[in-house]
Each structure stands twice: as C-alpha cells, then as structure tokens.
Amino acid sequence: MSKQRVLVPIADGSEDIESATIIDVLRRAELEVTVASVMPEGRLEITAARGIRMVADAHIEQCQGQTFDLIALPGGAKGAENLRDSELLIEMLREQRDSGRWFAAICASPAVVFASHGLEQGFATTGHPNFTEQLSDHRNQRVVVDRNCITSQGPGTALEFSLQLVESLLGREARDRVAAPMVL
Description:
By secondary structure, the protein is α/β, with parallel strands linked by helices. It has a domain at about 5-105 and about 160-180: Class I glutamine amidotransferase (GATase) domain (Rossmann fold, 3-Layer(aba) Sandwich), CATH 3.40.50.880. Helix content is about 35%, strand content about 20%. The strands form two sheets. The chain has a seven-stranded mixed beta sheet with strand order 5-2-1-6-7-9-8, sandwiched between helices. Strands 3-4 form a two-stranded antiparallel ribbon. A hairpin with a 5-residue loop joins strand 3 (about 45) and strand 4 (about 55). Helix 6 crosses helix 7. About 50% of the residues are buried.
C-alpha cells in the first residue's frame, strides 16, 4: 500500500510553530509530506512570521494536477493572506473539499483562507479568536473535525491539531504511536 500524501503550503508570514509542527508530526507518522511555497516566481525559501527561514520541497505550481489525501494550512495572519491570494491553492482546496478528501487549517487560515473563498460554508470550524467572527459556523473548541474539514485555534493547539490530522488519516493507533515518544 502506498503512503498517504499530504500537501502543506507555506508562504512568507506563515506561523513558525504551526508550520514546523504540522510538517514534523506528519513526517513522524511516515506520511509523504510535500511542503510547497506559494510565493511568486517559483521562490522556495520563505521567511516565517517570527523570522525562521524555511525552504519548501516544491513550488505550488509543481503540485498542480496531483492528488493529496490531505491539504493542511498553517496560519499566521500574513502567511494566511499569502495563501489566500494563491489562485492555484484555492482551486486545489475547492477540489479537495468537493471530492471529500481532507482539508485543514489552523489559526488565521480558517477565516482568512477558507472563509474568504467560501470553503468553510456548511462546515463547523474554529480558528484564532481574533478571526472567528468571519467563520460562518464557529465553535469555541481547540480542534474541530466536521466531515472532511479539520480546523484549530493557533500555535498553542498546533500539536493537538497535527495529531488529529494523523488520526483522521491513519487512525487512533497511529496517533498514539506518534504521540508516545513525544512524552505528551
């Protein structure tokens, strides 16, 4: 059986903790993770919200036409704006949602990316408290799973969110196997 594939789009201003945690936890679960920059001109290096520089595996254009089991967005206000403005990413997210495959976002991204494009319509969601008024069906919970949509609140919930991504893709046993060595 082939590994499940995950796309983690990043951009200048993406939240450092969320980006690193999502990527790290999903790779610990032995998922095939592609980190893709949405920055212009094929630029792979981004500067995250707190100044950490990250180099993506690919540019979003190289991911076009590929199928992913999950697309998971980190937050960070500026990063979410950059993700929101990627027409290709939005097209991929619509396809992901409509096909019933997993799509997820944390922090500002549920509101700034999903709500800006109507992607969260019909789904219960959560997000960073500074952005929840933009969500159509906001729940005040750390992580919300509604059918194929997973959302979370912010940097402090990044580990819980990432473990939920693992559980949604691979089951509770895989989540527990990944969490145990982290001494949670």
